[in-house]
Design brief:
With 1209 residues, the protein is of the alpha+beta class. It contains 20 helices and 63 strands. Among the domains are: 118 residues, Sandwich (Immunoglobulin-like), CATH 2.60.40; 316 residues, TIM Barrel (Alpha-Beta Barrel); 242 residues, Sandwich (Immunoglobulin-like). Helices cover 19% and strands 26% of the residues. The strands form 14 sheets. Strands 11, 12, 13, 14, 15, 16, 21, 23, 26 and 27 form a 10-stranded antiparallel β-sheet that branches. The longest helix has 18 residues. Belongs to the glycosyl hydrolase 31 family.
Length: 1209
């Protein structure tokens, strides 16, 4: 590491520092230069080992992070295995990296290199200069040591230019597109998947094979005139779905099915009735739902209320490649040659520089493309078999005007990628040959399809006719693009189709690489007449066509019938599981960066939040806290007493999270590495040797989490006796678990690697992360003997991951585009079963300006997971590093989040019961309002009532946006501005001013929202604090309801009945009104000292002059209150309603009025201590005139009391 303004360089800090190389300073440090005037770090030189840096606090009480290597630098460091950042020369020995006294092999000074390389570029690229001296000097120049000085300089400059291309955004050349994926690419004659478009499907059911047994329909499928190849089962599921399973009848090897993604074996239900004919079968699965199975060609049509909603193979694109024996002429017994460092480096430089010098061109030139299209058009009307060969016989007649026969000699079949596939310098051997599977699923009557996370794209899936398909293949993507179908960190092959009439869904259990085409057909009856004439008239209906393509695996599809959004969420969560109730602290603010330097840095950061009166709950440690990237360890110098550090944090009710990645540093002196090696717990390469890749530690091996014994062993490593220095207040972050392999194809693991049971990595790639965080969850659960709730964050995920871990959106950037895309990403994850999600606030890469950081906080507090995180190159992001005005704004935003924690926690509980998303798109709440189907900027939060969601947010996501338009749906509802409490009448669009301090947040009329207004250092200190009830009455001022869930926020005692789930309801008319609290689950019981501190009633249409509370002694007691008739808001301060109001079975607060009279109303209850009432006396009615054109309510009043004269507008 080097000072920004000095020439002094020191090692031992930063992500690839001397600590990672095992350089542990033991001798006293000697100061070599003072940089106090620079307000950065003082450099020290260790005697005799390594170096280290200590913080200079002369001008600041808090540490400032120096520059550090770029992501491109880190990549090549991993590729070449560097663990040092000293400009002095180093040599590799058998025991690791060590200091060398040899002269610099480059033969040039640091200053000379700096002048040559950085003068044309400027100081803005200083971090790349580190790469030149640290990495090229370290290894690359050791390879070209004998080159001339001019050649060395040329090569240095060459790599330097290549790196310039990498620092701005994702390098697409590292990742495949459809044309580079053999089973996806389009070829004129050899049609595998994307271009498999037969007029008539070659697949059909053998009628004689059909049988029905209770809940199952069974049959065999043949392709063309061939023998029976596949077996099929259709199951009726009790949850309101059907499951289609198709696999090889007599496979050469079993295909992997990721059944661990399911929440147990689905419960089946017998068909209500079955009608089996010679060419079709009609299966009634529920009173209003049925499935029609067509035999020839194979097709499944699904009906709800006699309306066709989904069709499998309606376009005839189902295609199943069976395993085959490898042809003898392709046999190659030669052992694959290992990739050398030079191969990796050359490939990286070549692709990077070519991309910089010349934009990537399409796979075909226009002439070739036109020729190929012509050939394709000639073959329309020809049915193809499973190998792409045309079928033209009596059983598959051509349509009128059909195509011509294929000339077998016109062009050779494209066999590239069938048995061996190449990508850059990587070779993927395929010992079992092509085994892809694909099918089309049509959603009839739908124009909007959602799902397929994870992509940085719009909420509604785009039409992919002119682009690559959406891709699901878990990858480590640096600074990903927005508005792109590229694969990211997680995969959930799940789609939801929605219209004003119905909501349906489908998900496919397949963990291999997947590509997904989406197209929206206009209203056109011709398709329906052609495919569904048996059931349909000439009604015009839109069709959303989707094409699902996987590299391997079987067909295991679940069709969800809905028909409402909440039905879909219930059905999906029943099958795949819900996100368990999180510990209460998880909803607070998370403070993180890569990396807090040492224990002192942690202590100062923690104290800074207290000093500036900003609450937070969790502080995070990235990989630098470990001893040389050995997970489950601590740096013995920087984090010498981790248990004490954690105890100091937890004394304030706070927690700590530490990263634990799945790769294991290859170190023969490390017991954990050796133990797993001896137990044969690592993933193997194609030659059945332990696979070695490169990641943060340098050389690394990867645990095989497909092995149940490995998962059990790994979970045990979280025991306090194994994970030294950990405590029950330390939780876990599983990163890099796609898995990320810096030296591998697409920054991941080779697909022909071998896992437990002989499975190829291509079969299990997308579930590797699932098995990793499943093991972590089990480990945290077991370390407390099942008493404490785990908290796990994962980057990689699959269907079912929500049962074990929470998710964030990955390595985003400090750009407005990444802020904007965070909303649709979180919403998409939410409807796909991942309710606890969020984005790195401020962006992981780059430095946000003050407007961007404020707006990002305003967005982040309305995502379930609220974390500020950034990489080590960025400036510090603690609020006090910004201006006083910005700091004050950030403090207020965080406090808003903390005030709403009871509402968030209630939403989390209700998700566990019904699978409802906590943050959800507008169309899920207002399913018939077509104006909301494309809405992704505003969204609903929580499940605040039994009947409706209460809060709607529309954060600002564009720079300089001084106002936004907000659509207020539901003509039956009134909306209230959360901050001003002014009512706004819907439906319609209103323009809301958005100065920097303004967040457009609205509460829906008819809701009761519980909040806590007392601010503590952390949420853990607020459990016994009182509540405020915000009651937003409906348009008529007669009704509101809401729920509140309480427990200890930490343990599993709620499963033993130790909780409260309260239902609040306000009802009234022109004469009286009452607020009642009822226990939703009478057998539940939880003791709390929390009480109702304040009641705020919005939209009250009467003016009270006196308020009393009546307790069990029947003696009225006057209460303080304020009535704002401009806002029609009544505030009852300190009603002195104790915790019994929450704990008793029925409790009532009564607001009673009659013109000119006062009265007392008591409500009987079994528990007399629960009876209490508030009486409002001498009320006069306020009449409401609603001006719908302006969207405002105009109030006027008759017989005004003197104190109100002149106050009513």
């Amino acid at each position: 590491m080097q000072c920004n303004r000095c020439d002094v360089v020191c090692s031992g800090s930063g992500r690839r520092g001397g600590r990672a190389a095992g350089l542990i300073p033991t001798a006293p440090k000697t100061k070599i230069k003072d940089h106090t005037s620079h307000n950065i770090q003082r450099c020290y030189l260790d005697k005799p080992q390594g170096g280290g840096c200590q913080q200079d606090n002369t001008e600041s009480n808090f540490p400032v992070r120096p520059p550090a290597p770029s992501p491109a630098t880190r990549w090549l460091r991993a590729v070449v295995g560097s663990n040092s950042i000293d400009v002095m020369s180093w040599s590799r020995g058998e025991s690791g990296t060590k200091r060398s006294n040899a002269p610099n092999p480059v033969g040039r000074s640091t200053a000379e290199l700096e002048a040559d390389l950085l003068a044309p570029v400027g100081e803005s690229l200083h971090r790349i200069e580190f790469f030149i001296f640290e990495q090229v000097n370290l290894l690359f120049f050791s390879v070209v040591f004998k080159f001339t000085s001019k050649m060395r300089l040329f090569l240095t400059t060459f790599i330097f230019i290549a790196l310039l291309c990498q620092v701005a955004a994702v390098d697409r050349s590292k990742f495949k597109n459809c044309a580079q994926s053999s089973f996806c690419r389009q070829c004129a004659y050899f049609r595998r998947q994307r271009n498999f478009k037969p007029t008539i499907s070659p697949y059909s059911i053998l009628p004689q094979s059909v049988s029905v047994s209770g809940s199952g329909f069974h049959a065999e499928i043949q392709c063309g005139k061939g023998r029976s190849l596949l077996k099929m089962t259709l199951q009726n599921l009790q949850v309101g779905a059907v499951r289609l399973i198709i696999d090889e009848k007599e496979p050469l090897r079993e295909r992997f099915r990721p059944l661990q993604a399911l929440n147990g074996e689905p419960v089946t239900s017998d068909f209500i009735s079955t009608e089996i004919g010679s060419d079709m079968a009609v299966l009634k699965v529920a009173a209003n739902k049925e499935v029609v199975v067509m035999f020839k060609p194979l097709r499944l049509d699904m009906f709800v209320d006699k309306n066709l909603v989904m069709s499998f193979n309606g376009d005839g694109r189902f295609n199943f490649e069976t395993f085959k024996e490898k042809p003898k002429e392709l046999e190659d017994n030669a052992e694959p040659k290992p990739l050398t460092l030079f191969n990796r480096l050359f490939d990286y430089v070549q692709t990077s520089v070519l991309k910089w010098l010349k934009p990537l061109q399409s796979e075909q030139n226009p002439a070739d493309e036109a020729s190929e299209n012509k050939k394709y058009e000639q073959n329309q009307g020809v049915a193809y078999d499973r190998d792409g060969n045309p079928i033209n016989d009596a059983e598959h007649p051509l349509e009128e005007g059909g195509g011509v026969e294929q000339n077998a000699h016109e062009e050779e079949e494209d066999t590239d990628g069938l048995w061996t596939e190449h990508f850059h310098t990587f070779t993927d051997s395929k010992p079992y040959g092509p085994s892809s599977v694909a099918a089309d699923i049509s959603f009839i009557g739908f124009r909007h399809v959602f799902g397929l996370p994870e992509h940085a794209d719009s909420l509604v899936l785009r039409d992919t006719n002119q682009t690559d398909p959406y891709r699901l293949y878990n990858l480590d993507v640096f600074q990903y693009e927005v508005d792109s179908p590229m694969a990211l960190y997680g995969a959930a092959p799940y789609m939801i189709a929605h219209s004003a009439k119905a909501t349906v869904g489908a998900f496919w259990l397949n963990s291999a690489e997947g590509w997904f085409d989406v197209s929206y057909e206009p209203d056109d009856s011709s398709l329906l007449k052609n495919l569904f004439s048996r059931f349909f008239a000439n009604d015009k209906l839109p069709v959303a066509k989707t094409h699902w393509m996987f590299e391997t695996g079987s067909v295991d599809i679940f069709f969800l019938f809905g028909p409402k959004p909440d039905d879909i969420f219930r059905q999906y969560s029943t099958l795949t599981g819900v996100n368990p109730l999180p510990p209460y602290f998880a909803l607070g603010k998370h403070v993180s960066r890569w990396n807090f330097i040492d224990m002192n840095d942690v202590r100062q950061t923690d104290a800074g939040y207290d000093l500036h009166d900003i609450p937070y709950d969790v502080i995070w440690l990235d990989i630098e806290h470990t001893y040389g990237k050995r997970y489950f360890t601590w740096d013995p110098i920087k984090f010498s007493n981790p248990a004490e550090m954690i105890r100091n944090i937890s004394a304030k009710g706070r927690k700590m999270v530490a990263v634990v990645d799945p790769h294991i540093k290859k170190d023969e002196n490390w017991d954990l590495y050796q133990e797993a090696l001896e137990k044969d717990y690592y993933v193997k390469d194609v030659n059945n040797r332990v696979y070695e890749g490169w990641c943060w530690p340098g050389a690394a091996v990867y645990l095989d989490f497909l092995n149940p014994e490995v998962r059990k062993w790994y979970a045990n490593k979280y025991q306090f006796s194994e994970y030294k220095g950990s405590t029950e207040d330390l939780y876990v972050w599983n990163d890099m678990n796609e898995p990320s392999v810096f030296s591998g194809p697409e920054v991941s693991m080779p697909r022909d690697n071998i896992h437990f049971g002989g499975l190829e990595h291509r079969e299990v790639h997308n579930v590797y992360g699932l098995f990793h965080h499943m093991s972590t969850f089990d480990g945290l659960y077991q370390r407390s003997n099942g008493k404490k709730r785990p908290f796990v964050l994962t980057r990689s995920f699959f269907i079912g991951s929500q049962r074990y871990a929470n998710v964030w959106t990955g390595d985003n950037a400090a750009q407005w585009s990444h802020l904007r895309i965070s909303n649709p990403m979180v919403l998409s994850l939410g409807i796909a079963g991942f309710p606890f999600t969020g984005a790195d606030i401020g962006g992981f890469f780059g430095n946000p300006d003050e407007e961007l950081i404020v707006r990002w906080y305003q967005v982040g507090i309305f995502h379930s997971f609220f974390r500020v995180h950034s990489e080590l190159n960025t400036r510090r992001r603690e609020p006090w590093f910004f201006s006083e005005q910005t700091k004050a704004l950030l403090r207020d935003i965080v406090r808003l989040r903390y005030s709403l924690l009871p509402y968030w926690y209630t939403g989390c509980y209700e998700h566990t019961k019904n699978g409802w998303p906590i943050v959800r798109p507008m169309w899920t709440e207002f399913p018939t309002d077509t104006a909301l189907f494309n809405e992704e900027k505003q969204f609903m939060i929580g499940r605040g009532t039994v009947q409706r969601r209460c809060l709607m947010a529309r954060p600002v996501t564009e720079p300089g946006e001084s106002s936004v338009h907000v659509y207020l749906p539901d003509e039956k509802s009134e909306w209230y501005d959360w901050f001003t409490h002014i009512p706004i009448v819907g439906p319609g669009v209103v323009q809301v001013a958005t100065p920097l301090e303004k967040i457009p947040l609205f509460v829906r009329g008819g809701c009761i929202v519980p909040i806590k207004e007392r601010m503590r250092r952390s949420s853990g200190l607020s459990h016994q604090d009182p509540f405020t009830l915000i009651m937003a009455l409906n348009k008529d001022g007669t009704f509101a309801n809401g729920t509140l869930y309480l427990d200890d926020g930490d343990s599993y005692e709620y499963k033993n009945g130790q909780y409260l789930y309260q239902y609040f309801v306000y009802s009234g008319d022109k004469k009286s009104g009452s607020l009642m609290s009822t226990t939703m689950h009478p057998n539940a019981n939880y003791n709390t000292n929390a009480w109702i501190e304040k009641i705020v009633i919005l939209g009250l249409q009467f003016y009270p002059t006196d308020v009393h509370v009546f307790r069990a002694d029947y003696v009225p007691k006057k209460l303080n209150f304020v009535f704002d008739n401009q806002k029609m808001m009544l505030t009852i301060r300190k009603p002195e309603v104790p915790y019994l109001f929450l704990a008793c079975n029925i409790a009532t607060v009564i607001l009673k009025w009659r013109n000119g009279l006062s009265s007392l109303v008591m409500r009987k209850s079994e528990n007399i201590d629960c009876i209490m009432s508030v009486v409002l006396e001498k009320c006069q009615k306020i009449f409401i005139h609603r001006d719908y054109s302006s969207g405002m309510a105009v109030r006027f009043q008759t017989k005004l009391p003197p104190e109100l004269v002149g106050r009513v507008r």
